[in-house]
Amino acid sequence: MRFVRALTALLPFFLLGVVPAAPVAAEVPTIVEGEAILAHPAGKLALRVAELLAAGKVEDAVRLRTAADQAEWRKQPAAEREDSAARMKNRAPDPKVLAEGIRKGGVLTLFPDRASLEAPYGAGGEMAAMLSFEKGKWYASMGPMVMPGAPAPAKEVRIAGPDILKHPIYDQALRYADAVHSGSPEAFLELATSESQAKWKAEPESERKEITAFYRKMVPKKADLAAGVAAGGILIVEDDVRATLAVVTVESASKQPGVVESTSSTVSIPFSLEGGTWRVKR
What we know:
By secondary structure, this protein is α+β, with helices and mostly antiparallel strands. It is built from 11 helices and 11 strands. α7 packs antiparallel against α11 (222-232).
């Protein structure tokens, strides 16, 4: 759906947290609609986050996320965190309009460990939020956010797994991962759009260093990125000029005999076609 494409583009790095590593059966979601959403703990949480964001209380909203997500928020460079906070506030729905949209056409899709909430918003807009369920409690993950007046692409192509290797974006993504981990800002800037390069040049030197360090922590190394693509990556190409590569990487560790915990991270890298070449859009 459209809101999924928007979320991956808006939030390039979303950590899903620590989950037990065990065989996963096919998941059949539970659907909650309309007024009933407002009585569900996940629906109540989404509305509370919307109230905090609309009031500009972004840090309070972040405290309603999992401990892992809060830790990742604090790791961001100051400039990145401030930019994220401004976007979250600007895109936050009016709580009253949100509640009305949920009543009229909201859909809450529940899985054992997560949920997504979609609802119409105002005149032709859409609202979306994602939540996670951990140790018997619901936590905010992304949103709620409004996507007003953004028409669906006339053409969308989804490419999955090994088929991504045939697309030129695959090679660019590997080059980007290599460049990020080289520690040279100039290396990954060569692969960025002209707009991204201009934004980088406008940053003070101190922020550039922090951003570079942050990217090195968040972007998988070349081999890990390649493995993630082959295992279950998704490339969404819109109107032949925009694309998002989403890859899940998993790190496993055993802290006690017989118990393995895995940390899975979804990395979404946006691209734009510029001068006939796919470039990373920061």
